[in-house]
Design brief:
Oligomer: single chain
Number of helices: 14
Strand order of the largest sheet: 3-2-1-4-5-6-7-8
Shape: elongated
Bound molecules: nicotinamide-adenine-dinucleotide
Number of strands: 15
Length: 435
């Protein structure tokens, strides 16, 4: 039976390589709409967890994972040879940076090399990992076609970026526009047909490079705009202007303005990393993407700004950072999710430790945290703990925090996220990034 028919009647077997924040939701979604899905990951604990129906990704609904596992629509394994029997392979492995902020495609290369052993006619391979424009055609395609398969004829290869926004309650994988760029028109059409089975809106583009560039552009757009507001915040601080009031006022304009908010830096697996993929690639074309570098410089400077400002706050109370008990509230990279990756909070905390501050923290999503080789445990926010701190430092504004209580009992609150915006009492104790 042809691949198109197998997609239409859902008898196609779908392999999802990498069962993380992107891969697991995708695997569950495809199993839910009726495909048989085999999840492949190199970490045995993740595979075991999936096979027991134990969820570890907040965007996946526990009951949905259980249901697809119990009905054997989703099975996980560490054995890559199952790829031999897959009709469709979705690659969702990490794309980190090296220490020198260069693209690290180790996982993609490794998976592609293994896949090249099992690739067969009538197979669709889609890369979902975020990467620089050219990866699909320059890194993946040559390996998959080395045995003579022809893309667009007997093998279908495409790039389709994942745009999931962790924690977003409105937009999930199934109702977010899915970009699809095929190596050939036939590749694009097969990939589009496949995604149409589970995702409401598909937006085909003319090539994998366009899809790859679009995904990175979206994240550069965020990085640059966050940097802009972070820079404005530093100016507002010197000019004694409340930056949040400025942003709210600017947001009353019905066109041409989109609010971005300042913070102690940027985090997660996307914004701090992806722009550097493009910056690296652009050098091959004798171009230096200065916006990207500048945005990175400003955003990466924010943890230092926070530490410097905290030092000045303590100064006002006749204290210094050394031996000051600082109660950090929120350590994940954004509110209400459990993802600690690249969190600016950990950078701020590491800098504070180096200055000799005494840290404790509270985060409902992060029971323990390794900092400078030492394990810290999340503590409940109590009036006593707040009162015995030199400062409560809000680095991630989780909605579970009781901001009224925090402001009431802490001697001073340095709020880097405007989490205390609805608190009406003791506002004189609240210090924002710009005030
Ligand atoms: N997390 C997000 O919000 C998000 C959003 C859009 C795009 N992306 C992109 O999606 C890709 C995956 O990100 P993620 O957040 O899911 O990462 P993740 O770390 O949560 O998951 C990746 C998974 O791949 C597995 N893995 C690593 N190397 C492997 C290998 N060689 N073989 C098999 N499995 C391997 C890991 O064990 C892990 O389970 C990245 O390129 C990222 O930039 C992430």
């Amino acid at each position: 039976m042809s691949l198109v028919k197998k997609i239409q009647d859902k008898s196609a077997r779908v392999g999802v390589v990498g069962l993380g924040y992107v891969g697991l939701p995708l695997a569950v979604l495809n199993a839910k709409v009726g495909f048989t899905v085999i999840g492949i990951d190199e970490v045995p604990e993740k595979v075991e967890s999936v096979n027991k129906g134990n969820n570890y990704i907040s965007d996946v609904v526990d009951a949905e994972l259980k249901e697809v596992v119990e009905s054997t629509r989703l099975v996980a394994t560490t054995d890559f040879s199952v790829l031999r029997d897959c009709d469709i392979v979705l690659i969702c492995v990490p794309t980190p940076l090296t220490k020198n902020k260069e693209p690290d495609l180790t996982a993609i290369v490794k998976v592609t090399e293994i896949l090249s052993r099992y690739v067969h006619p009538d197979m669709l391979v889609v890369l979902e990992s975020t990467t620089y424009p050219g990866t699909t055609e320059e890194v993946i395609l040559p390996k998959l076609t080395q045995k003579g398969l022809m893309a667009g004829k007997d093998l279908f290869v495409a790039f389709s970026p994942e745009r999931v926004d962790p924690g977003n309650r409105t937009f999930k994988t199934h109702n977010t526009y899915k970009l699809v760029g095929g190596v050939t028109d036939a590749c694009r059409d097969v990939a589009q047909l496949f995604y149409e089975q589970s995702i409401v809106k598909i937006f085909p583009v003319s090539s994998p490079r366009v899809a790859e560039m679009t995904k990175v552009f979206e994240n550069v757009f965020r990085s640059v705009n966050i940097a802009l507001v972070n820079e404005l915040t530093q100016l507002c601080e010197r000019m004694k202007i409340n930056v949040y009031e400025v942003i709210d006022a600017a947001a009353t304009k019905n066109f041409g303005f989109m609010p971005f908010y300042p913070g102690p830096g940027v985090g997660g697996h996307c914004i701090p990393l992806d722009p550097y993929y493009l910056a690296w690639k652009s050098k091959e074309y004798d171009l230096h993407t200065r916006f990207i570098e500048l945005a990175g410089e400003i955003n990466e400077g924010m943890p230092y700004f926070v530490v410097n400002k905290l030092q000045r706050i303590l100064n006002r109370y006749g204290r210094c950072l050394r031996d000051a008990p600082i109660f950090v509230l929120g350590v994940t990279y954004k509110a209400d999710i459990g993802d600690p990756r690249e969190s600016p909070a950990t950078k701020v905390m590491a800098l504070l430790l180096r200055e000799g501050a005494l840290l404790r923290y509270s985060d409902p999503f992060t029971p323990t945290l390794m900092l400078e080789g030492q394990e810290y445990r999340s503590q409940a926010i109590t009036p006593d703990l707040l009162a015995s701190s030199a400062c409560a430092l809000i680095l991630t504004a989780h909605s579970a925090f009781d901001y009224d209580m925090i402001v009431e009992h802490a001697p001073v609150v340095f709020d880097t996220r405007n989490g205390t915006r609805h608190v009406t009492h003791h506002r004189e104790k609240i210090i924002l990034l710009s005030t």
